[in-house]
């Protein structure tokens, strides 16, 4: 019986389990990769995301061929037809596919009607298996990320001396919240000129006859493992030192600051989490000048949040994507797609996203998701937009990050309180308010910042539900200090804003 392998677009690692299972017989093992236009049309994906995936797939296929695998590369309308033709042509009796990270694609595989047996091999692109997480969750009364993160450090022996953390504390987050002060001069991100393969993809995506998002006049992302490793080396050498203190800062004209830009490569398999963590830890051991807060802060993002988000994603029931704790129903405003808004923080963030496919975690959480939460936007529409718009966005990433952490639509499964904030936070952590027409301090009046009146309207509308969150009680007491006239104007301004967005007169 001939065994064939189907490599998915986010599984581009020669050590992935389906390929590893046949490595001893690779010269006689057919492998297929498929670019599906139907899959690309499911959402209004960012052009840079489509280019990254398809260019990386084509380069990976070339690398597999050079290793001696029998590789077929197909560009087709859908997956089914080329798969069936390939299976019949190669007389394949068993098709091996590494278990998809995304549940919808797993369901698609389970329902796929092919003339052979489909075997899903375990997904080995993460530090924790699904069962590992379930075993850990079963032993816990609450599923706090901090507890999960500490357990992971102990299990893998990362930044620990025995069972104690290096530096005598597990978390240096308080040292990693510095606002931008003075002139910020981070090194430019490592950029790659598109080769012939990538250029062909760029031209195809720019000529696509289906809806996409963003721009691709300049594409500089890595598309091979060698390039992704170069980005990792560059981060450790030139960016890691200052990554920690300013990881929450936002600065006009600085798209990436000191962030690593590794998530797109981790999420498609060009890099593996353990090698990224090891590179950072070894650099810390060898270089006494690397600050522990930067090292620990980065490792927490990969070993803590990334693994935790994936674990929660698989742990939750099938109704998780539809949860809407606050019953928010307002549609996504058009400016999420075009960036045409007088709110400078949103304009700057969306403009960066349109050009690059990227924005860092605080721009995502405290600008985009925060506004979506306090303005009462539909969690499902917001999650779908995040999935489509970000170059590193996938179902397993965005459901927990948006439905759970960003919009609190799961009612507190993932976060201990809603990440809701007024313009005060934006002004503290960025320079965006300096270039905005709105008054960052005003919550009423013609120039009141929407972040302000929406924030207080959100607290007012959901006071009963928020009062059950212990960490919110102090903030809610501030509502009692407002006059009825001020609260009524705040409520009205929120209603008028939504009416204006829908094209109705106010």
TrEMBL record:
GO terms for molecular function: lyase activity. InterPro entries: Crypto/Photolyase_FAD-like_sf (IPR036134), PhrB-like (IPR007357), Rossmann-like_a/b/a_fold (IPR014729), UV-DNA_repair_photolyase (IPR052551). Residues 169-188 are annotated as: Disordered. Keywords: Lyase. Pfam families: DPRP (PF04244). PANTHER family: SLR1343 PROTEIN. This is Deoxyribodipyrimidine photolyase-related protein.
